[in-house]
Amino acid sequence: MKRIILSMAIVFGTCAFAQEKKTDTAKTKNIEGITITKQVFKKQSDRFVYDVAASPVAKGNTTFDLLKQTPLLSSTDDKTLKIAGKNNALIYINGRKSNMDAESLAQFLKNTPAENIQKIEVITVPGSEFQVESSDGIINIVLKKKMSDGLNGNMRMSNTTSKYNGSQASFSANYRKGKLGVSANLSGGENIEAQTYTLRNGTATTSNESTGDIDDPNKNIGGYLNIDYQLNDKSNLALSWNTWANKSYNSTVNLFNTIKTEGGTKYTWSKNKEDARSYNNSVNLNYELKTDSLGSKLNVNAAYLNYKRFQFTDNRTHMSDVNMGIGKMTTQVFQDLPQIINNFSGMVDYNQKFKNDLTVSIGGNYNKTKTDNDSKNITYSFNPVEAPDSRPNHFIYDENIYGMYVTVEKKISDKISGKIGVRYEITNSLGTSDNAPTGELKRIERNYKNILPYLSFNYAINDKNNISYSFSSRMRRPSFWEINPVRNILTDDNYTQNNPFVKASSTYNQELTYMYKNSYFLILNHSYIQDAITQVPLQGYPVSPDGTVGKNPVLRYIRTNFGNKQEMSAMVGIQKSFFKQYWTTNFNIGVQHNINNGSLDTDPTTGDRFRNKKGEDIVYTNKTNSTSLLIQTNNTIRLDKKKTWFFGVNYFFVDKQQIELGLLKSLMSLDLSIKKVWNEWTFAVNANDILNTNIVKIEDFQDNGNYNYIHQNRYNRNVMVSLTYNFGNQKVKKVRDIEGASDAIKSRTR
């Protein structure tokens, strides 16, 4: 159910400064706490730095709330964070990528108070030393250092009311005694993710419209345990364990279908039920050795990741009438779609610092992943009665990735600095199926060798003016679920089709930045994506490779490499406090220009082509450009001298823009909040999307006469009430956060 929802809502990856699924590509992230002193926003050689240690924005907020109010960061779905001009944002802690999977991270960010953060670094174009894909950016959270021994922690409870009610709770504790540090977290909650859909497609004479609701109940529990021991003055040993579990039973789809043909109109009901559960466990062992007094050090990581998802669906189609009555069942499809992922990883990094402000970094990594997808699919037809159609498919995907990099960073003078680097990656993968429907699916081999250069240059003209330029080349490998050749059924005639033939895409990023007085900025960004991985609709009467023509027209949302794409953006903004910090504002305004150039005429998995009623071949094309206005502002107003009452006003607007599925209509949201700080307690009320304008609408008209329309209400309008309590010795030093060797793999499990 979630896969269908996320695949259909491709808008999550394209809106608001080039936002992405549940996403089906959500990225692995982690985070810990937050606090605030003086507020400074400045540009360093390869990153923007937001010093939040004294800002009124942080007190009483969650980490997620604070990140949403950081310059260049945004969220249109209140689930994922995006960086201006980037497809996705990876969360780092103290320079190390988090160990949490995307689902646990979203819960963790919203349940973690924002009192422990010193500064937030936004790396829009990551260097060669970072293991990132596509045009991903990095959000690095730098925690405050607390030196004394003792115990501290926090507890947080919240309740959110939208179409349904949801609750969350978390408990975190940090302990330090001498050379030993222990950090632990336990969080969980339950909610029902609700959506209302209208799907409409067809031609001038034939059409298929589906309207109704999708309800997805979720229960989550998870956490982490980090143990850090100082072996001596130069070396540390750390062990990290992350775990998360999700149970989503009795997810339902209830869609009423109106099918109009030249022969008349018929009505059906699609009533689907899904039971799913997933588990994510990872262990990482880290060794760090400081080799000199300048900060040179060696880092070695070894990790194991185990991900399991079990999904069982019962999809039923019933006859109906204009009055929406439920009649005889005509078809029933059972699907059993398990996925098991095992990953072994290793990573070595060495940074050598020299006295003349020169740093040389070298490193390498190895990832070995095996994905087992033992899918079962059986269809029963009752009108007329036909023999069951069973289509099992046991698809196994093995992948080996070898990577190595070198970077050189040099501060030439007080005004000029730069970094140059290169990353070399080798990818060997093999997908096999012991009972594939076609011969090509039995063995799919993919091998890549990529040289990925990086360059950045920073020039501080004077104390008030700074200019910088960055270039980076990256590749994006498909997520593991994307290449599992199964269908995710929504109705008889609407479903998503995964594609094991998807190959990695390449992305080339350029960025030019100008800063004035560390408060005003201009950012110009350009990204070129070759063989873009996306989802596009193919509709019509399917024609199989043997020439058999389907009885009814269908609409397939197909995962594929869809040509090339360019994204260009220009943005100006301000981050500043006024009236002795009574008013703090973060305002961005800009334009984004998308150039799409792709076409598709064949389902890559089945080989099916599509025809209209006249027997003419149908090709889906998207060679349309669009220019969109983007506006975002976050404001915090202090209501009293004692800094105990705060009022928040946040707003974003994303103009209509062309994406792969068609023209995405404009999105907008106005959010208000009030919070009260009393000693160690913080009480807050947030009202999100109060105008109920953050609703997805996509429309596409093809030259061949086909049209496609999607209306998706995700019930973003909600009210959340939260209570946070901090306890213990607030000077406890945080445990080191370590980048796990398997982090790059985790981002592809969802």
From TrEMBL:
SUPFAM superfamilies recorded: Porins
Signal sequence bounds: 1-18
Xref: InterPro entries: Beta-barrel_TonB_sf, OMP_b-brl_3
Coiled coil: none
Domain spans labelled Outer membrane protein beta-barrel: 290-725
Cellular localization per UniProt: Cell outer membrane
Family annotation (Pfam families): OMP_b-brl_3
Keywords recorded for this protein, A-Z: Cell outer membrane, Membrane, Receptor, Signal
Cited PANTHER family: PLUG DOMAIN-CONTAINING PROTEIN, TONB-DEPENDENT RECEPTOR-LIKE BETA-BARREL DOMAIN-CONTAINING PROTEIN
Name of the protein in its database record: Outer membrane receptor protein involved in Fe transport
